[in-house]
Amino acid sequence: MAGQGVPKHQRVQEIISTLKEDIKEQKLSSQDRVRNLEELKVYSREAQGCESIYTLEVTGTVSAAFKSGAGIRTLCTLGFDDTSHYETSREALRCLANSLLLSAPSRQTLIDLGYADKASDRLVSDKLDDEFLLGRILLLLTYAKLDIAGLVGGHDLAANMNSAVRRHSTRCSKRKESESPLDPMEELALTEILKLMYNITHFAPDFAGLFEKSIPHIFNILNARKLASPPLQSPVTWMINAVANLQFAGNEHHLFPEDNPTRHISKLIEILDGSLHKENLELDAKHAFDDEGSVLLGVMGNMYQVATPEAKAYMRQRLLPTTEERKRPLGRGDTLSARLLNLTTEALAPKARVVTGRLLFELSDLNPGKFITNVGFGYASGFLMSNGIPVPPEALDKTVELNGTPINPVTGQTLEAEERDQKPLSEMTDEEKMREAEKMFVLFERLKKTGVVDVKNPVEAAIEGGRFQEMD
């Protein structure tokens, strides 16, 4: 054994040679075969010393230069060709999963040997261990030259994956009734299938339509799940990713069920709300949210496009500023809508910033005037300018009203609250005057860039007129 003085690479080669011989001679007992594979599985967790797994022919001395793939062929034979010995097959698949993860060339070797087809066929199994291992292997193969069309068309890959997701959905429904504990392998298996679904729909979008049958089952699983903190972590992130590339048009009855049209979108808003809480969005978490949160926000925007009137009204109610919030300039406070507005200016989350602006624009029915009224010109201007969307001059008129109440189109605050809060200049401290001047400078610069009106920044005019004085 390697732990008893035998070098790891030598012991790995010995195991591969023993298993290869036994395929021909069948001298090992099932227990010995499994024991060898279990030992090999431990070694295969690190690439160093496992060259014999990745070779095509195990010949010559230990130091010989091997061609690529021999151990892979041996493990494929044990894992796929004889499934009557389940323990042997499962351990071989575990060794394969480890090896494909650590050796990219081995993925193409497995495909060239024809075992991707067998992995797809075998995914029909309802055993969680099989589902996890086969899902992991097929997922890794998507990063090689995998014939996805052949697997989908000739080996029922999409159908088998849809069936796997449906089985998980059924388990969720039963577990909800009986409150039985979650099997950890169930979560691992589901995660691999969802990852595989995302990769296939990403690398081969033409086949995305084949996975639309899984939409109601994925949302059923998501709704049955108690959220962790922060909510955007596996497997929730993979459920959202899995539907991100799917077509929502034509699936409205799945997304907005008649008995509860807001059920699914409510869960997504709950996930978003929890993800944007201050404690879940510290500095180091903003980069992670940029990737995961932008997918969530994109899915919500796609859902709004096909939503029922009731669901659209619900989304606007939950995500846009309320009348109560307009007692102050928008973006202040800790409401979900305020946090969304602040996300549109978040430098550390560039992708989420753009997708948030797009979602809020969707909620405004793609109407730039309504968009400015809903979120204030200060937040709307960046999105409109970066997308080349002209600003209607009337949207910045002081007579703009929302639900019959006059508002400041720049800040989104009601004029009544603005007048009440406005402090006379004589009562302001120097610090307050500086803050007001800074806000005015920023707003005038944004207004200038729109080209809607020809306006000169009063601070700039003061400097040119010699009325600007340096202070200690």
TrEMBL record:
The keyword Chaperone applies. Keywords: Chaperone, Guanine-nucleotide releasing factor. GO terms for molecular function: G-protein alpha-subunit binding; guanyl-nucleotide exchange factor activity. InterPro entries: Gua_nucleotide_exch_fac_Ric8. Transmembrane segments: none annotated. GO terms for cellular component: cytoplasm. It comes from the Eukaryota. GO terms for biological process: G protein-coupled receptor signaling pathway. Pfam families: Ric8. Belongs to the synembryn family. This is Guanine nucleotide exchange factor. It comes from Terfezia boudieri ATCC MYA-4762. The lineage of its organism: Eukaryota, Fungi, Dikarya, Ascomycota, Pezizomycotina.
